[in-house]
User: Fold Peptidylprolyl isomerase from Hymenobacter crusticola.
Amino acid sequence: MTHFSRTPVRGALLSVFLLVSTTVASFAQLGIGRPVGNKMVDAIIVKLDNQIVLKSDLDASYAQEEARAEGKPLPLDLRCRLLQGIVMGKLMLAKAETDSVTVTDDQVNGELNRRMAYFVQQIGSEKKLEEFYNKPLKQLKEDLRSQVKDQLVQQKMQETIAGKVTVTPREVRQYFSRIPKDSLPYFSTEVEVGQIVKLAQVNQSAKQATIAKLNDLRARIQAGESFETLAKQFSQDPGSAAEGGYIGFFTRKDLAPEYSAAALRLEPGQMSPIVESQFGFHLIQLIERKGESFSTRHILIKPETGSKDVNESATQLTKLRSRILADSITFAKAAKDISDDKPSGASGGLLTNRQDGSTYLPLDKLDPAIFFTIDTMKVGHITPPLPYRTDDGKDAMRIIWLKSNTPPHQANLKDDYQKISQAALNEKKNKALDEWFKQNRGSVFIEVDPQYTDCKVLAPTTL
Assistant:
């Protein structure tokens, strides 16, 4: 999608800390460097109070902009602009520490899980992601934890500084009028697509078969076999199976409530009865407690769904589709009330653009399964139930709605008010951030590597 901002740093100041690229080539954003030989090649290029900027931080940001540019030439001073943005982030961290701005462990864990799920989806599987980095998934999360925490704190500081900034319709029109006619972006075809997902509900016979299998494993462990060995052999949790079922330390709130409740009833070394959660059935062993945290290992087995279970989901969606077409319920309300996909359900079923948060999706960036589904659809049409497999491997059915289809066009206020309004808002928020930066840049000690002194990293970021 074409952006109104003509300077990469400008958009980055508001959202760089949580942006995720759609290319495997930009996995540097994970914050985990791939090794060169047996050593990591890195260096500190900026020190700001107790914060540092590594060369790898700057290289990762530059690689992200290269991926977005898709082969187009980048500004010669891009590295300096990016470094300015990173230094602003470090200044926010320093001020957040003095102003007691913090985030919770739950927020960090939630963001870690979201990122990992996204990257797993992009690369194809957890196994491929682990092979790419030669590390288990839980280690990737731990390597990324401190960076994600910093990014969430930076985001919270940005919200404190510019979160209350708004724009009026007049300011949106004024913003648009300042864009030279020959610089107006040209938008490719964009669509708004909604979905309602119903997971296949596991039948009782499949559940009982799973429980029987886990009870057999439990008996074998009680008879002397190794929990870890059996976890490696039978557990269907790819993130922990290779580690003998070990998932590390978590608090009660970090895990499924059924899992936490069962684990906390155990003494170290004890094994639980069979526990059911949204992920399947678990056999849990408590390893250790440290204050509010505890470590466990588990064996997870997921009951298999059959064609009958999937057909029941299809029947539910067929009836729901008839109600929507008969105007007895709107697609948006049905998605919020009934869809098993909570992220899209919260937005009335509409899929959102990861780049700008809008509901407008460039046609050439769509998931192929959706692209080929809507390719011949008319606006307003809702498909019959279609087979679907969720990101975490669950069988489901879904119906897809084509809400709108906007042909290629040059930006204008009538068709693109939402985008123009967001761009105007970003500009106004950036001015608020610039003002904050000017007021606070003198409150920190900074040391810059001589190679980067020409970047003037504490200069105003007005571009």
Q: What stands out?
A: Confidence is low (pLDDT under 50) at residues 1-29, 31-40. The first helix runs from residue 8 to 15.
